[in-house]
Specification:
- This protein has 70 residues and is mainly α.
- Helix content is 37%, strand content 9%.
- It is built from 1 helix and 2 strands.
- A two-stranded parallel sheet has the order 1-2.
- The chain is rod-shaped, with a radius of gyration of 26 Å.
């Protein structure tokens, strides 16, 4: 037996590497699905933000809408 602990030709080692890669791929896919489904709305009346907007800001319902700035 050589001094190497992990033998590349061992079928269990190849299965272990395959499973680690599959788990990593599934984790990446799950992370991207959650990120693409988020949109944020900042408003006073509780309206739902537009589907294609990453950030939807509406200040028209504020009592001081004649003033400049938020």
């Amino acid at each position: 037996m050589s001094g190497s602990y992990l033998n590349v030709s061992c079928p269990l080692h190849l299965l272990h590497r395959f499973m680690l890669r599959a788990i990593l791929l599934l984790a990446c896919v799950a992370a991207t699905i959650g990120v693409s489904a988020q949109n944020v709305g900042i408003n006073a009346d509780g309206a739902v933000p537009h589907i294609s907007a990453m950030l939807d800001v509406d200040a028209s319902a504020l009592p001081a809408n004649g003033k400049k700035g938020l």
